## 1
Amino acid sequence: MKKNIQNILKQLVCIVLCLAVVVPFYMVLINSFKSKSEAARMSLALPKEWLFSNYVEVIEKGKLIQGFSNSLSYALTATIVAVISCAMASFVICRKPTKLNVFIYYFVLCGLFFPVNYVTLVKVLNFFHLTDNKPGIIIAFTSAMIPFCIFTIRNFILSVPIELDEAAVIDGAGPIELFFRIIVPLLKPTLVTCFILQFMGVWSDFLTPLYLSSSSKLFPMTMAVYQFFGKNKSYWNYIFADIILTCIPVIIVYMLGQKYIVGGMTSGAVKE
Amino acid sequence: MACCTICLERVVTVNKKRIYPQWFLIIPLVLYICFFLFPSILGVLYSFTDWNARSAMTGINFVGLQNYTEIFTSNKDYVSGILHTLSFTVVSNMIKLVPALLLAIMLQEGLRGKGLYRTLLYLPSILPFVIIGLVFKSILNYNTGLLNMVLDALHLGILKQKWLSDLNVVWKSIYGVDAWRGIGYVMTIFLAGLNTIPKSYYEAAQIDGANFWQRIRHITLPMLTGAIMINLVFGITYGLKVFDIIYVLTNGGPGHATEVMTTYSYQLYSSGQYGMSTALNTILLGITAFIGIMVVRVMSKKEVQQ
């Protein structure tokens, strides 16, 4: 009996918390279909008339197609380059723990904590003629995710048996063959985790493009939404539609990669 | 970790130089040094100059500690920005860690619908801050916002607040939104940690007559050190660098009541006072470096022990 009451209480707590998460989403979704005056009241009632045209309007006015393709190209390129190059680096760091490599590992690890100094980063990018163009933004993203990727991937490689390397080498594999044909398939879970987490990180990032993109042509979706909000403060129906469209890609990635996120996020920390 | 020593002995047989080439390190190392570390160091140097938007014409001059004295003595209240950053780091972490731990323990004990709850509660932490900021800007609106509307409907009108413009409430609103986003994330890490604790420990404790709190104190907490550590590290670094959520929710207002270091730094950058901006950034770098080095030390010690 006591157990039952406890269970009911627990379920209640969980349901209330989940409602606190779901209701804002619901509010945004339902209001994105309303007319301007109806949406301004932000009620939870169903719209009198479902205006799917809000979405068409927002995609045009908010330059969302451009924002989407910018976000996608930043996130994909930066993440792929970072994950592959960091996997190679962590492999060598882990398998050949010379003094230099151990130092490099902790040296890179410091980047987990440091804030990026955007003011001087702009200056450095300027020197390489990388300001106000896509490669510059991508390089900034890639560099910022290196510490996390090396940290996570190295922790995983520790558990990959070294006998595999020996066997491959005896069979005549060179370093590149050994790494890409033997090691990478084994690293798949951690690589996917890194990829998903960093992809979502870039997609959500606001500060980097805020400093590095002065022309709206380079704006990713987050910036496009914010700019749209600044221009159309009273059109909450459009703003909500814009919000929904920005969230959908991350939510899809989250749903697809859920098991990797939860498993991998903690791999470094919790296995002790 | 024991496998590593075995590996070390064995690998001697293989030519390490050939199969683990050092050039595998080049891309990340070059990018990290050029576009992450070097700007930080450059920032430290520039923080002693009068670098600003007009420097293209007048040149950049060394001014010693002038930027720092201005930060600590001017009436612009940069000091309160520094204090806000520190208090945000402490308070936001406490608000998230404790409830998240209790929640994780609750879910771990086997509740029906655990998977669904976990998925839903984690969801907010994947969304862009800008989005969350905008959504809560509408929810916390005094006249039309959802929160005040719900309070009205529950006849709790007295609790209604000007959530984002009342000086006494605005920080609480920010902490609330931050917790809304972060609790699921922290909880997920705790859940993963709890999963590694063998059930038999609890059974043994139960036989010995330990009550709920004793079990938490003597089994759960000590076994969760790793998860707590990682949550603290992520939480502290996040707190010190916090920008998006404050920028979107309040933009530092009302007045300068919710400015933090990063928002000040961005303001100084956009008004062309680059030297001042880097000085503020350098102070932040100092704080994070201090904490970071301590954490890396603890971590490397642990690895040596293992």
## 2
Amino acid sequence: MASMRKKSRGDNLVLRYAILGAWALVCLLPVLWFLSIGLRPRTEIITPQPIYWPTFSLDAWHMIWSDWPMARYLRNSVLAIIGSVLIDLVLAIPAAYSLSRYTYRGRDDIGFYILSTRMMAPAIVAIPIFFLFRNAGLLDTIWALMLIYAAINLSFVTWIIRSYMLDIPKELEDAARTDGASDLRILWEIIIPAILPGIITASVIAMIFAINEFLFTLLIASTSQAYTMSVALANFTGGSDGVIYNAIALVAFLAFVPVFIVVVAIQKHLSRGLTMGAVKG
Amino acid sequence: MARIELADIQKKFGLVWGVRDVNIDIADEEFIVFLGPSGCGKTTTMRMIAGLEEPTEGEIRMDGEVMNDIDARDRDVAMVFQGYALYPNMTIYENIRFPLRMRGVPRAEQDALVRQAAGLVELTDYLDRKPQALSGGQRQRAALARAIVRQPQVFLMDEPLSNLDAKLRQAMRVQIKHIQRQLRITTVYVTHDQIEAMTLADRIVIMQSGAVQQIGTPDQIYNDPANTFVAGFIGAPPMNLIAGRLADGTFTAPGLRVTGLPERRGGKVTLGIRPEDCHVTVGADHLQGIVFGVEPTGETTYLTVKAGEKLVEVKADRDFRADLDTPVAVGFDTTRLYLFDTASGDRLR
Amino acid sequence: MGETSLSGTGAARSAPARPATSRLRRRPRWLKTAFPYLLVAPAVIYLMLITLYPGIYAIIQSFYAVKFGPWQPVGFANYVRLWGDYQFWGALWNTLVIGSIALTLQCVLALLLAFFAYRDPWVRGWRIVFLLPMLFMPSAVAFIFKLSFLDARVVSDLLIRVGLIDGNLAIQSSVWMSRGLLILADVWQWTPFLFIIFVAALQGQDEEVEEAARLDGASWPAIFWNISLPMMKPVIAVALILRGIDITTMFTNVFIITKGGPAFGTETISYFIYRTGFRFFDFGYASAASVIMLILTILIAQFVVKRAFVSARS
């Protein structure tokens, strides 16, 4: 029996490609559908019979740039997200260094506390945070969004960077120490350059989560002054006309392109980042 | 340059003893080697000298000054690591310059010093490369250059050659000893390889389970082992250690009988004999057994003889050959026998 | 010059690298002990502001009636009301049902896909294609699902054309179809998350073990089931926990696609809190629900998550 299947490598290639191909279609077809909605006129979106081959139209494109302050939403998103990632790195790198390189009382509990903040549902803290920001006069500002995004991603970023730091041989640090370097110098000159891929991975993932964040943004940014792309979408309702789907689809596609590029660039590190370092890719 | 004293050093990791009761006085310019199996405490001892670990008890002094609470970066020691520990993001040049930068050597003098150190280890042509682009031997030399560039009080080397292949290791051994003699810097060297220890050391410190077993010159360690651990650790193949009984100047074990030993306290005794002090004879002799294995190395032939349950290693002539299970007799050079107390392992003198 | 100044004794001894007189620096001991705490402190303080402070705030607020006017202390009234509130229990139940079905489905799918993909020569290509759904903003994905299933009835239309159903699907009036829609949206978008992790874990496994098993005559499915899968257990646990956290806090899709309906049948606990707080402005009551959820979170974190992360690391 074994000799009869010697060429099959044990699994069935037809089955394999049937399944992988089917799922590839499941992934790709909705994306194309997405695109077709973004590039069709409004009149062809909700119709008695769905239209599968719509007329090509840049209605949505003109609409988002002329009827809405899309440039401002975009700027808000970019500022809030980049600011939040910077806050995260400034806080997370020293914290990760401390958690990965020193032994001290309570270290594991502190590390777990940081991890566990990731488990907190946004809805739990939403109300107090709302009042906190309202009292601080930060509602409807990108500062509030920046602080919130930073908080949401901090545990993730810390744990990813910690995981990369754990991979750096202790010897390297001992060598630097006997060479006369202080702890902070070791962090700055030896550790940070060596874990640059980890820092980039963490930043990219934090960026994506920040783009995706919805609930807080909805609560904090209640006027179009501080709208980000994600919440602006939820408000593309154009009053009595209902949801303006082609604009939504187009904006989502525009946001997708840069995300896709950076994710493909860090593909190798993605699984490690997504599991906070628990899986070495 | 520097004399190092270790006084009653203890190191505990939680409840486990890492190092206990270590007392060593290392002279200025001496090349001292810590030798022992892995986990014997030799690396921990070295790390305490470096300042990377703190002793639980005891004092470390350099030139009379207590160093216990001085940070590693403030002690003037340089360390070479087993994995080389070159900074991966820096070129070889930047690696070698790093300690100068950290210690505030004026920028103008750095370049000349880096180039001298690189020249000493013949790395001048590779200064622009990153460590990943170098072979194992070159990385090793870069690590060495980084240690010598700042002319420290003390060199510490933690198994620096164990990641190299055998040929390269021999060449680097010579290099290291040459550089140490040239620079005349006190050197502490940790290894589990007895050949390295024998060839490099002025004195060897043999450690086991965190405790010092013997300190002495290579000759003393080889010819005058203090106990069965030292006897069995040094020599390749190592000394044969055969447990038996001693009574009325006669040692007996299965297949083995040696008479004419000096009258001593009898009882359970272990007899030690090096393979090179044994010879194959014709007819009855000290040891009667059967051939268990024959290993020609080209230069000589090692014969393993089975006597009772015990395997005894014998250095035979280079063209000695024998079939398995044929009876053989082995004679000992009785002037080179060692007797140890079986229970404690200590040498009987 | 050259090598001589290093090797010559006189020059070597005056080399500038040596501190002229050995005045040894003794650094304060407390600094050494405190240093790691100082490094981690900013992050911890920041997180406390955003978790501990709101936690305490919510606990306090949960003992008050906070509706438009000043806070009125009400003791445990909010909790008593929660205990009898079928909408609250319904929200817990919905979260559990939708979450567990969605999680099971995407885990099985991701494992199946990872099993077929990880040895494929084009695994990098599959990975990029399968990744696509994850890279769109969840809110936009939710809108497109809403459009395709509800507003434009595209899916109904397709199913009619294929001949699977006769009339339009009345998704909005069926609790189970609405739940199914939320599940479908989550599975479509987030199966890639698990897939990426599982493929990486499979690729990271020691090939020699698999080869040994193959020489022993095991088939690929048998190897996968008996060797690869058990070795992946810690990774699967971590991945499912991370995904589970996101699913049980699901808000965006409910907010956009179903608004919790029909008949509160798809209202998750997050949406319940949002609706109570920010639609009915009953903040004290919403805080009481938050506290219950917080307690559940802490329990799960302590007993499940801690263990999973510890075992994945070793």
## 3
Amino acid sequence: MLRRLLGMIPTLAVISVLVFTVIQLPEGDIVTSTLDRLSATGVEMSDERVRNLRAQYNLDQPIPVQYLSWIGNFITGDMGFSYLYARPVNELVWERLGYTLLVTVGALLFTWLLALPIGIYSAVRQYSVADYAFTTAGLIGLATPNFLIALILMYLGYTWFGLSFGGLFSPEYLNAPWSWARFVDLLAHLWIPVIVIGTSGMAITMRLMRANLLDELRKPYVTTARAKGVPPLKLLLKYPVRIAINPFISTIGLLLPALISGEAIVGVVLNLPTTGPLLVQSLITQDMYLAGSLIMLLSVLTVVGMLLSDLLLAWVDPRIRHERA
Amino acid sequence: MFRHGLPRRSGAGLWIVLALAAGSSLSANAAEPDWPAAWLEPARTASQLGIDSFSQSPVLEGQGLPPVEQRLPDDPVVIASLDSMGAYGGTARIIADDRSMFISPEGLFTISPDHKTILPNLAESWTYSDGGRRLTVRLRRGLKWSDGRPLTADDVLFTVNDLQLNSGFMPVTLPDFIGLELHAADPWTLVFTFPEPNPFFINYVAQSPEYFLMPKHYFREFHPDYASAGAIDARMEEMGFSSWSAFMITSMQKRLFPDLVNQPTLNAFQAEGLTPGLYTYRRNPYYFKIDPEGRQLPYIDAIEAQDVRENEVAVAKASTGQLDFAGVRLPTQDIPLLKLGERGSGIKVNIWNRLHGSDLSIQANMNIADERKRALFNDVRFRRALSMAIDRDEMNEIIYFGRGTPRQVTVIPDSDYFEPEFATAYAEYDVDAANALLDEIGLLDIDGDGLREFPDGESMTLTVEYVDTETPKQVSMELVASYWNAVGIDARQRLIDRELQYSRAIAGELEMTVWHADRTTDILFPINPDFWAPRKLAASLAMWSEWSRWYLTGGSLGEEPPPEIRQLQLWADELATTMDPERRVQLGKRILAANAENVWTIGTVGLAPHPVVTSNRLRNVVESGLWGWDIRWTMPYHPATWYLDQ
């Protein structure tokens, strides 16, 4: 356990160097991108001016110095300053994290609550009409680009229920204090991103559950239990399903990085107040600290998430626990 | 109006079919703009019109503010409405990117809807003296910032002398401030002096008001001349900025978008809250304009601007009546879709015209390192052939529903510098002439593959690299490439990143590129004739970067331009300084005539239709106007007089 924790440190150190390098790679930086946006104002994009602005943004120091000052602050919990938003990165991330959590967890629950039972059903009734129907529907969901589903659902939401386009709230509730009505309004909007993000994972979850379960169902212990007269539903849920579900538990850890990047494109289209669009925006404008810190955060969450998954798996599956002991 | 002069195509097929299918008529778009006469002249004041009683929006009652008479300036400015005087109240719904259009910036001067005349605004008058080297500006008395503090000459002095001309803040002075001196004769009189006559300085002040008006009482505590370094450092640390200048630069740049919570403003609306999804604004209780009945403007109490980043979502919101005003994120191609929304969504699609002289400025780099390409691009026959091979009428039909104007890169028709032949020179579709010119140059199809080769038989490919932004560049370039292919020119396209466009354009490394040409009105053309004379290095100007560099460095870097190009620079310099209006027009026309004859850049379709969607409850918005940066989109059309019919 301790070894696992210590092993994370060099991993993250290497990642941080990579992140910083990759962000520095493209031509230009926040200064040229800012000047470019302002070029319509007649602001001269002369070399001198670019150099001056870089000095004011502390971008003229050698790259290693910039790296050390950035990573030093990151370790102490200061993710730097976003030039684009003119605000500290910490504030930007925190004010969006709650909504991101809501959308991501909502989508995961939606996927699992629907896809797992369907997967189980498809395995038990393999090659039935319903199996084919669910598979087809799931694959259509997988094959359709998320943003397209988002646009269609937004349109339907508006024409059927009169919902405003995009966002998690109607305009009148956006800045309102929390109330029952605001909560209802949130639920009325939340289903669109939840379905959109959830659909993309639906087919994979469904098929994976089906395949895992089929493997299990063919094993001798199932036949034995069946011969001994264990009721079919109890048998199914207590043994093969429990084993077939393990791979999903190991992916729970990936939920953490998805908090930052998972719903990026959908978030942009649906205009969600989440962290995904922030990441996209920061990369486009080369807002170095915002982009770097977000990606670094993403990496930390991935590494921590994998650890959590392993722990969770050991807890759920006694065999893993005993192997280690 | 400029619309008179435009060739109007009658066979606007697709457009008409779709518009009729949507159950609407074209009448709205053909309407002659009918501004109130008062908009074209210096705004009258309350005392001139005999207005002696003032009133305010009911929302301001009971807020503990001083009475409206005390908040208004000594003699408030009266603004007439387009159709009718409005009712107070309501919250306008827009998307965040339209906030610069809904909240017009207030400056010392403003721009008339004739798109050429500068009118007084916060300043009540100005005079040039000393042969154009001295500009005296008189501020109105009793103007106030949105926190109630007075606006005086001191604020302008602070912005110009302590920021723009302070090397700690602007190590490299902006070109328009070089050599500028400013002092105040009294708290309401500003005296600008210039080393050279500077007749168009007022255009610059009118068009970029942000660069002259920062509230001193607010910013002085962040400026090292006024506050202790320790106190400033502590504040910067707290706000996360690396230096006071970084903070000030951000503040000044953000003033282009009226976003600054707590920072005092002179605009009709003040930012109130910025959350991830929504920007909110409330009326400025100290706004200095009133309507002809003595009621303080604006009519609208508040604005909610949703942060929408996708054009599709903006179009969907606008077409379903979820926005009161939308423009900047609505592409030309979506006009038919928006028109469908007119049927049941309670909206109106107004067709304005982008002021871009051409939506595309196709540029071949005449300073390119490759010797053969350089010779080719410097051959006027080659540029003319490329231009004449383009079927602009078809582009107009396919991309603009026949509602744009096929033309070269030149100024708009109601400019004083315009001549019809500047727009039409070498713009007629003539494949035979193009082929003849290419044959004459010696570019022949030697190997019989349908494409022309260099005289030595080596294949010739043009590479066009550009950013697909603002105007429909990619769809246009695909058509252009197919027209060029028809005359045997092999043009390959590559979309590149903005940063790459910038760095390669100023380094002279782009072979060919595409941008769009604004600065086509009499507000900006005389100051920045950049598309027509090499005097600037920018992402948008890739055809003659070395000649520009030579000009900017006084000949120490870059390449000396040939005489006809040098002449452009000299004419542009004189245009900016001459005080003789006739000479001015003569010089401007010479520059444009030389460009028309030499086709240094190639235009396609200009004055393109731009959809501006208004909800049926938003009143007083002009049905057609010019859309673009030169006039700050809506500045001449008085957004403060817009109101919501509840």
## 4
Amino acid sequence: MAKKEYSFYPGCSSERKASASNYMVSVESMCKTLDVKLNEIPDWNCCGASIGYAEGGELPRHAMNARNIALSEKHNPGQNIVATCAACWLGTKETHERLSGSAQLLADTKEALKEAGLDMDYKGDVEIRHMVEVLIEDFGYEELAKPVVKPLEGIKIAGYVGCQTNRPFGVAGESFENPKYLDKLTEIMGAEPVEKYDQKVTCCGGALAFSEPDKSQAQIKKIIESAYDFGAEMIVTPCPVCQMNVEVYQDQINKKYGTKFHIPVMYYSQLMAVAYGGTAREAGLNGNIVRATRLEEIAARPAKK
Amino acid sequence: MAGAVATNETILVVGGGISGMTAALEAAECGKDVVLVEKNPSLGGRVSQLYKYFPKLCHPTCGMEINLRRIKANKRLRVFTLAEVAKVDGGPGDYTVSIRLSPRYVNENCTACGACAEVVSAEIDNPHNYGLSKMKAVYLPFNMAYPQRYVIDQSVIGTPDAEKAKAACKYDAIDLGMKEQTMTIKVGAIVWATGWKPYDAAKIQPYGYDRFDNVVTSVEFERMMDPFGPTGGKLLRPSDGKEAKNVAFIQCAGSRDRNHLRHCSRICCMASLKQSTYVSEQFGDQGQSTIYYIDIRAIDRIEDFYAKVRANPAVKFVKSKVANITEDRTSADVILHGVDTEGYHRYDNRHDLCVLAVGMEPSVDVRTAAATVHVDASGFVEADPVNGAIFGAGCASNALDVNRAVQSATAASLRAIQVINKVSGAEV
């Protein structure tokens, strides 16, 4: 029997060969250490992401997320839904709030789901949570520090929070302009956070990285530049889109601006997987384009205790 | 034991700021018995922390001195400091009030010679300077404090510093054995004059008060002008002590904002207009002020003050709610970002220092002591028959400037006097 159990919504980026499949690998390793069981929602679908807001329409967007919630209620009754992807969390949480607040929208959504053959008995009694909320609220920093066997000593890391875990809901108790949870996680893993990192909530461009590359890359440049200015060797983020945008465009930005960016962009779960004694593969380090050699070295070392 | 002779013909005034002092004096000078309680170790309140009043730009120390003389001369008025109202029971003409008295550890033998403070080493934030400076943990709250008696901070009790202070006292004024006490008194009417506190600027996150050294509040800026203040009366910015010659003022910082205080705090426009004169006073033509505002509310009769400031070429007005502030990493200058609504220009304006004209909120919730008192949506005491003989005065009743606070206090005092007159049978 696992210590804690959740209904799990992995989302598209975590699928095999998708951009954040290494995020998933590291989350599995981290959860194994923390004795967390994730029960994947069977046949989950897309959260709608940005497209849902741009063109999808309100009802279809909520119906898609409601379908996931309904499937979760049916297959994983009573379990809180946990997402690792910031966009999945945000979309699902928003739908959950809207449906709780509007009888009309709830009725319309149920009708749409019925058409799809899903009789939704929407109780709305579970919470929609991001993995970092689970870590902070269900475990707490002190508890999370206990399994550390390979502290990430001597690495300076910039905590890039991005927007989706931050606005509009945010993580409880955090400031919108200067959230500190990544810094705290970094610190308890034995690394050194960049306390004054001033681009931690700057937008990475999101989906506009495809359609408006110039504007997005100007944003990304700021995010990386500030990390370097404060002496960071690495950036850590809780969001697959942030991770992708900040990592993969470094070459294009270097060409355009004459910079020499080459900085690894990691998930918090990768730091934790390594600190908890996982191998480089278990921490998904092989899934990064800019390799985190310092983490690879630590992962290869024998554990301290 | 601490105690006070009080009857149901006594008026209790809660709060020893400008409003409470006024209400207490008005009633006592009309021949009523008054008990004045103040939570802090000294009377004076927030007015004692101001450099100058608007619109006449005179110094509050002058009015404070007059009030203290009146207080000292009046036998009907008894003052308790470090005293907080814990609970009010009963009704008009017959209230029972329990008052918590915190230990000062210094008795009335104190001559304010300061020998005790000289020997202690522990330091604490100086609340009179809003924490902009440190002071010894054995202290006189400020030069004009009343009573003129030192205080030993709770944090040094039980440490060698406390013993050192005791040993240094030549007058046997230090009593380290003092304990918290509760006194219960009967009163006939209550004037609630607990005043205001500045809105917590750190909550206005885009302005980075908690992150940037050179973002300060209007009340802190006021302290910088005081010759006995944290910067010795000079406008120096906190990051590097450089003269702040180019100062930005952000209006409605926390007020008229559904995310913060919904009400207009009323005084902040005049306060910033006044503070722009401080910049000119210190630096002449070299001093530049820029006021970012939604609209200027120079409350009624002091519009001409606004007109005068407006005519000063060293003061610029930008009609805009500032979106956010960033800090230049090398110079620690603050950069204000936003859109000017007169012409719709985007700006990124650099300043030495940014002053947030923070809003006013009630300093205490009256309902913690008297549950049935009616307050408005912002927590200010409203005039309402359900309040019985508990009358809000000054900034406990609304966001007011000093002038209006004093008027409000006089009105509350008169209402309390009428209640007492009924109790005593002097009035039917």
